[in-house]
Design goal:
CATH superfamily of the largest domain: Intergrase catalytic core
Strand order of the largest sheet: 3-4-7
CATH architecture of the largest domain: Orthogonal Bundle
Largest sheet: 3 strands, antiparallel
Shape: elongated
InterPro entries: CB, DNA_brk_join_enz, Integrase-like_cat_sf, Integrase_catalytic, Integrase_recombinase_N, Integrase_SAM-like_N, Min27-like_integrase_DNA_bind, Phage_Integrase
CATH topology of the largest domain: hpI Integrase, Chain A
Organism: Pseudomonas azadiae
Strand content: 5-15%
Distance between the termini: 112 Å
Family: Belongs to the 'phage' integrase family.
Number of strands: 9
Structural class: mainly alpha
Keywords: DNA integration, DNA recombination, DNA-binding
Protein name: Site-specific integrase
Radius of gyration: 34 Å
Length: 394
């Protein structure tokens, strides 16, 4: 038989509940049930009773769950995002904010946090027509938030732990790498003057990101010993005029100043060098550029229209630098270091078409340098053995 036990919370707004206990109605079991009931009522009276722990299979468990565990994904992500703002870089927070407000909350916000399952996330991601990079960013953000929820003991396990959704075949998308030809570079630079021209020439010949360009100070330039620029900070529109340390260790780097870059800096000295602060200024305000947006609006777009060059965003100066270096035969690992990448695999994947193919004389230098030495060594060994044989014969 099935015995019912009744738990009545000592609270003016209490709800009377009855749960079944699968025990035979013997005298011993009835006594155990009474003791169980008394223990429950005591836990309720001191505020330690958890319905879902005592009756995990009950349909009422969710109804009486603590408020925090009945929080929606929307509510939790909103709290998590507000807490993150104090602990991450402005650009990172801005990325999180966009993913949370534009992607995660609209899709998963109404789900109870404790009910969020991997399958629901996977099924949603499968509907998105975005790049694999965007899919990775979405999951990284959600995984980080759920890790924090686990540490707060709001959920027992992170449903995304040890798992990553990846589409077998990424949807076709236009290649973003669209460098400027030498003729287009010259046309754009001719349409610019003063500080604007200096900055764009410097960008084309260093490969710096726009956020790195605007954060550059004269103290970052090594003129005499190494002719390098030290890149260690970046400034985005999200940072609101505050330079921040680059996100990765590889991003903090020394970039060799090639002749056109040095020429641009020497021309720029007349404008900002004496102030000993930012290298490049907005010519309209005579203050440091606030980010990519003002550059495009006040300087870049007008120059492109004036020349008739097909429009590309300013970031293409970075792609142009990479394509020029690789086309000239510079080593991919050197290019990767110049651009702030951890290794050269990304360079080969993204810019591989500009890497020169092997020609008919490929390998000749190695052969001339090493094969001759190997032959001489081998011949030396033969001559040595012959000399020893001659001595023995004598």
């Amino acid at each position: 038989m099935v015995k019912r036990t009744e738990a009545r919370p000592f609270h003016p707004c209490a709800t009377r509940c009855r749960e079944r206990i699968t025990l035979k109605p013997t005298a011993t079991n009835l006594k155990k049930a009474e003791q169980h009931k008394a223990a429950i009522e005591h836990a309720i009276s001191i505020g330690t009773f958890e319905y879902s722990v005592t009756f995990p299979g009950s349909a009422r468990a969710a109804k009486f769950a603590p408020e925090v565990s009945r929080e929606t994904v929307n509510g939790y992500l909103t709290r998590w995002l507000a807490a993150k703002e104090k602990h991450v870089a402005s650009s990172t927070f801005d990325g999180y904010r966009k993913l949370v407000t534009l992607r995660l909350i609209p899709a998963l916000g109404d789900t109870m946090l404790v009910d969020l399952k991997r399958k629901a996330v996977r099924d949603w991601l499968d509907t998105l027509e975005v790049s694999n990079k965007t899919l990775s960013n979405i999951q990284s953000c959600l995984r980080s938030a759920l890790n924090d929820a686990t540490e707060e003991e709001l959920i027992e396990l992170n449903p995304l732990a040890g798992w990553t959704y990846s589409r077998k075949a990424a949807p076709p998308k236009e290649d973003d790498v669209d460098p400027f030809s030498p003729e287009e570079q010259q046309a754009v630079l001719s349409a610019l003057s003063g500080q604007a021209r200096n900055m764009m020439q410097f960008a084309l010949w260093t490969g710096l990101r726009t956020s790195e360009l605007v954060a550059l100070d004269w103290g970052d330039i090594d003129w005499l010993l190494r002719e390098e620029v030290m890149v260690s900070r970046a400034m985005t529109q999200a940072s609101k005029g505050k330079a921040e340390t680059t996100k990765t260790a590889a991003g903090r780097r020394s970039v060799k100043l090639l002749r056109p870059a040095l020429e641009a800096l020497r021309a720029q000295k007349a404008y900002t060098f004496l102030a000993d602060a930012e290298v490049f200024q907005n010519p309209r305000t005579l203050e440091r550029w606030a980010g990519d947006g003002p550059i495009r609006k006040t300087m870049w777009v007008p120059a492109m229209k004036k020349t008739g060059v097909r429009y590309r965003r300013p970031y293409q100066t970075r792609h142009t630098y990479a394509s020029m270096m690789l086309s000239a035969g510079e080593h991919p690992m050197w290019v990767a270091k110049q651009m702030g990448h951890t290794d050269w695999t990304m360079i080969a994947r993204v810019y591989g078409r500009w890497m020169p193919a092997a020609d008919i004389v490929a390998g000749d230098k190695a052969e001339a340098l090493w094969a001759g030495a190997a032959i001489k060594t081998k011949q030396g060994e033969v001559d040595g053995r012959a000399s020893i044989t001659d001595k023995k014969s004598g």
